[in-house]
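Marked as duplicate of an earlier ticket. Keeping the data here for the record.
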Amino acid sequence: MKTIDPAALGARTFYKHMTASVAPRPIAFASTIDAQGNVNLSPFSFFNYMGIDPPLLVFAPNRRGRDNTHKHTALNVREVPEVVINMVTYSMVEQMSLASAEFERGVDEFVKAGFTPLASERVRPPRVQESPAQFECKVLEVKEIGSMVLIIAEVVLAHFSETLFGEDGQIDQRRTDWVARLGTDFYARAAGEALFEVPRPQMGIGVDALPESVRTSRVLTGNDLGRLGSVLQLPEPAEVQVFGQTETLRELREEARHGCQYLPDLLHRHAQLLLAEGKVQEAWLTLLQLE
C-alpha cells in the first residue's frame, strides 16, 4: 500500500488521487439564476442524494484552483436560493462537458452548449429538456469549509421521462444510460454489461460459518464467499446426497478420476459458475459433496 498524508502532498495533488479513487461519482448538472435573471448551467461531480425525508440533494462547487474565486453557481444560489439538478446521460455528455468551460458570468450555457431550456414549475431556474430526470430544488443552506462551498437543497418537484419506467411503475435501471465522473478526463457509462444486480442481504450464516474447505478455496473469490454466506442455513445431508447422483456431478467425478483435475477444484469451479447464474442452493449442494 502507498500511504499518503494529504497535508504533506498538497491539496491539489491529493485531489487528483481522491477523484480517481472515490469514483464513479454522479453528476449534478445544475441550472441556477442570478438576481438579474441571467441563467447559468454547470456540472458538478461532488454530488449525491443525501436525505429521504425531506429529499435532499447535496453538491459542492468548490472554489477555482487558479485564483480561489467562487464559481458562478455558488454566487447565484446566494442571490436566488433555487437550483434545478438535471441528471446526465451518455447522449448529452459532450454538450455537458462544453457547458463546464469557464465562460464569463452572465453567459447562458444553455445557448453555448445547445441545450433546450424548459420552464420549471416551482423554482425560477429552467430545467434541461434533454435530461430524463430533473429535480427542482430550494436551497436550504450554503456552507463553506476551506475551498468547498457545500449546497444543501431540498427537492420540491421531480420530473422523470416516461421512457425510464418499467411495467412495475418503477424506474428500470436497464432503461437508463447515466454517465458518472471518474478521475482526470475519464467518465463511466452505466449501461449494458456494466449493470449487474446483487440480491439484498439477509442475516445469513456469514463467511465465518463456511466449511474450511470452502472458506480457504483456491478458486472461490471474496464475492463468491459473500454470496455463499448469505444463506440462512446449509442444505440438509439428504439433499446433498441426492444431488450428488445428478449427471453433472457424476461427470465431474469421472473427469477427476480419469484426468489430471483435482476434484475439489472442479467442484469449486462448477459452484462458481452456478453462483454467477444466481443458483446459490445448487452451488452449496455442489460444494458440500466434499464434506
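See parent ticket for discussion. The longest strand covers residues 133-145.
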